[in-house]
Fold Phosphoribosyl-ATP pyrophosphatase.
Amino acid sequence: MMNEQILSQLALVLEERKQAPPESSYVAKLYSQGLDTILKKIGEEATETVIAAKDGDKEQIVYELADLWFHSLVLLAQQNLQPQDVLNELGRRFGLSGLAEKASRPS
Ligand SMILES: N=c1c2ncn([C@@H]3O[C@H](COP(=O)(O)OP(=O)(O)OP(=O)(O)O)[C@@H](O)[C@H]3O)c2ncn1[C@@H]1O[C@H](COP(=O)(O)O)[C@@H](O)[C@H]1O
């Protein structure tokens, strides 16, 4: 799988899993368990990422961030959003100073 296509290809698989029976697939099982379970996984994977970084374990940081990104993609799909929506937002912010962007936010 080409790296630049992985988000969109994975999003297609996650969309297909909406039709799959829960016992046939990890993603289908997550959907059937619902939003709170997906959010709990995101919280767990974020915490595991923090621990890996505090431990200074680069390999583990990448592993845990992959889990975090994956479960974030499951959340996007569950909410009928696309990875492209997040990429578009990052694109919109590109080149805009974080300080200027923060100052322009509605209070
Ligand atoms: N990229 C992933 C991926 N990354 C992580 N995981 C799963 O996410 C879970 C991570 O949770 P944990 O580390 O807490 O492990 P766990 O204790 O087994 O999890 P729980 O049972 O406690 O929820 C594991 O079950 C991993 O297998 C993933 N499962 C699926 N994918 C992709 O999604 C596609 C569809 O997967 P299925 O729906 O299973 O076919 C796959 O082909 C992959 O491309």
